[in-house]
């Protein structure tokens, strides 16, 4: 095994870190590299009954049904992380993070029967929803 100097090691580590930040690394778990025009859809849900484990579980169950929509490249369901900084919003109960190849695929998702059924069957659980949509530049 070749021995690296500390300087070489740090240089390589810095390059790999920056490369990941610039989108050279694939989207986690998708095998696809981020590229200009990729569409990110991030939804935050506030439950009508904050702290209700049952309602949270039902909402997560519903979100999992949406994963059947083939236009979704990557989906993540989350909850507030145990981080503490003034800029962090922690008032929501569940987040839904989606990646699409483009805006058109996200629009198909919005009109998809599975998505419409999700809204019909689960919207009674939430009090507030905020969506952040963005495209890679």
TrEMBL record:
Q: Does the keyword NADP apply?
A: no
Stress-response A/B barrel domain sequence ranges: 39-134
The UniProt keyword set, sorted, is: Signal
Q: Which Pfam families match?
A: Dabb (PF07876)
User: Is the keyword Signal in the record?
Assistant: yes
Which residues does UniProt assign to the signal peptide? 1-19
Entry-linked InterPro entries: Dabb, Dimeric_a/b-barrel, TAT_signal
Give the source species.
Pontibacter ummariensis
Annotated protein name in UniProt? Stress responsive A/B Barrel Domain
